[in-house]
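Pilot study result, target chain (122 residues):
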Amino acid sequence: MRHLLLSIALLTLGAVTASAADISGTWKGTAQTPAGPVERTFTFKVDGNKLTGDTTSDMFGKSTIEDGKIDGDNISFSITVSFQGNDGKISYKGKVEGDTIKFTVEIPGVDQTVDYTAKRVT
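Predicted structure:
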């Protein structure tokens, strides 16, 4: 009986791990910011619950995804951007809904959040 319960527990754990959203690929989105609309392309790579990749925008250039995590349909990561000679870390938290990710982006120093929606390209 103990072996049966252990097997069921391991299968359940495996199902939870396997249910992480596969967001690998390219996504594009736009956010309205105090500096105007910002378009950003995300290239995500998923390895288990680890999220890596990079992002590119016309306004801020290319940034590497740091501290990326994926937990089911929830993702989080940060990027470092340079604006007018100053570097700043921006934190993204998002929820995957099919081919859409709805982000809340925290911008340090201005105590502001920005809503950002990205759509899967490939």
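One observation from the pilot: The beta strands are 25-33, 36-47, 50-57, 61-64, 66-71, 74-83, 86-97, 100-107, 112-120. A full batch analysis is planned for the follow-on phase.
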